[in-house]
Amino acid sequence: MKVDIKTVADKAGVSTATVSRVLRDYSGVKEKTRKKVLKVITDLNYEVNAVARSLRQKRTNTIGIIVGNVLSQFYSIIAKSVEDVAQKNGYNMILCNGDDDPQKELKYLKVLKS
């Protein structure tokens, strides 16, 4: 069974808004309530649904990089550097290999824009 935020809220005896505040480490939640919610989260092995969160926030924290050819040392160094900085700032990176093919790169561009 997939555990969602409503299940956590029901088991902890709080609202979904309270669970959300605990997950975001909001300071306005009483310590006793926070501990109870965190225990239920642990007991149920709850994981935040990243897709649902990104839909609500209207952002994915994902950066798409299209490189001409991943076998090129030049592109590899750039991609690695971008990934390092992205991760330090809470972003993920998707790397697309264009294989030196402009049509393939355009396809990836359309996918990343959608």
UniProtKB/TrEMBL annotation:
- What InterPro entries does the annotation carry? HTH_LacI (IPR000843), Lambda_DNA-bd_dom_sf (IPR010982), Peripla_BP_I (IPR028082)
Q: What are the protein's UniProt keywords?
A: DNA-binding, Transcription, Transcription regulation
- Annotated HTH lacI-type domain ranges read 3-57
Which SMART domains does the entry mention? HTH_LACI (SM00354)
Question: Which Gene3D superfamilies does the record cross-reference, listed alphabetically?
Answer: 3.40.50.2300, lambda repressor-like DNA-binding domains
Keyword Nucleus set for record: no
- What residue stretch is flagged as signal peptide? none
Q: Which GO terms describe its molecular function?
A: DNA-binding transcription factor activity; transcription cis-regulatory region binding
Q: Name one Pfam family in it.
A: LacI
Q: What is this protein called?
A: HTH lacI-type domain-containing protein
Q: Which organism is it from?
A: marine sediment metagenome
Lineage, top ranks? unclassified sequences, metagenomes, ecological metagenomes
